[in-house]
Amino acid sequence: MLKNSQNSYGRVARLLHWLSALAVIAALVFIEMKDLFPKGTPMRDFMKAGHFQAGVTVLLLVLPRLAWRFANPLPRITPAPDKRIALASHAAHWALYALMLALPLLGIIALQNFGREISYFGITLPTLVSVSEDAAGNLMDLHETLGNLIMWLAIAHAVAAFWHHFSVKDDTLTRLTGPLR
């Protein structure tokens, strides 16, 4: 089943979700591991490049993911959650979507403000802004702050999924994974 049903997400939504999750995790791991290596070393440069490639992958995945989200009804949760829980869940999901859009764009624009040409797996990205070192520093600070936010929000998202599955005992998690044995 490609499309969502009343009770579960379809294969396309599942694939886009898990690929996005892997790309976000990869971006976070690469940037955190970067600090393990001295400045100017090939490994540190590799970690920064990996962070960038993963970040652009997030951007490229979130666009079709949002389109698919709008084109397909959400499966219902059984039993239905409290209205406050449902509202918090929707707010968290939309915050994650916004961050998956904003973070890669901020990163691209910040690097271009530093005067760097950017390529994604060998394809040079169009230049969106001219060089401004002051703006670049401010954008990098914002990018880092939002990066920390997406990390904690993603952790809360995963914890909430397990809480729903093991404590609340609803089908929130299995709508996206299929039956867990």
Automatic annotation (TrEMBL):
Gene3D superfamilies associated with the record: Transmembrane di-heme cytochromes, Chain C (1.20.950.20)
Record's bilayer topology term: Multi-pass membrane protein
Name of a matching Pfam family: Ni_hydr_CYTB
A GO molecular-function annotation: heme binding
Residue stretches spanning the membrane: 12-31, 52-71, 91-111, 149-166
Main subcellular localisation: membrane
InterPro entries registered for this protein in UniProt: Cyt_b561_bac/Ni-Hgenase, Cytochrome_b561_oxidase, Di-haem_cyt_TM
Keywords: Cell membrane, Electron transport, Heme, Iron, Membrane, Metal-binding, Transmembrane, Transmembrane helix, Transport
Gene Ontology cellular-component terms listed: plasma membrane
Family note: Belongs to the cytochrome b561 family.
Protein name stated in the entry: Cytochrome b
The species this protein was found in: Paludibacterium paludis
